[in-house]
Amino acid sequence: MANITPVQLSLIVVLLITITSIVAAVYGDSRVLMRLMDGTVRQPEVKDALFTNALVSCGLVESIPIIAIVVVLILIFANPFIAH
């Protein structure tokens, strides 16, 4: 790793940001849906409210990779760390 250029380093960081955000979103969605199933089994009469809350929660969790993709696009196309 003696001669890593700033462009290569930025691409490595882009890869790490993307992978981390995807893993975090998958883990978060799985936790939300696990709690939905658990709550539905415990109290079937409130399944509609639980389902609505789970959909909203999954939407919020899915915003993590979307924000990360914006950061990735900034690092790729308007990289502040590379002077042109």
3D architecture notes:
This protein is mainly α and 84 residues long. It has a single domain, classed as Up-down Bundle (F1FO ATP Synthase), CATH 1.20.20.10. The protein is 80% helix and 0% strand. The protein is built from three helices and no strands. The radius of gyration is 19 Å and the shape is elongated. The protein starts with 5 loop residues before the first helix and ends in a 7-residue tail after the last helix.
Helices and strands, with pairings:
Elements: H1 6-42, H2 47-61, H3 63-77
Helix pairs in contact: 1-2, 1-3
Radius of gyration: 19 Å
Outline type: elongated
By CATH, the topology is: F1FO ATP Synthase
Count of helical regions: 3
Integer average pLDDT: 90
Number of E-type strands: 0
Strand proportion, as a percent range, falls in under 5%
| Tally of structural domains | 1
What can be said about this structure in brief?
The protein has helices at residues 6-42, 47-61, 63-77. It has 84 residues and is an all-alpha fold.
Write a concise keyword list for the protein shown above.
84 residues; mainly alpha; F1FO ATP Synthase
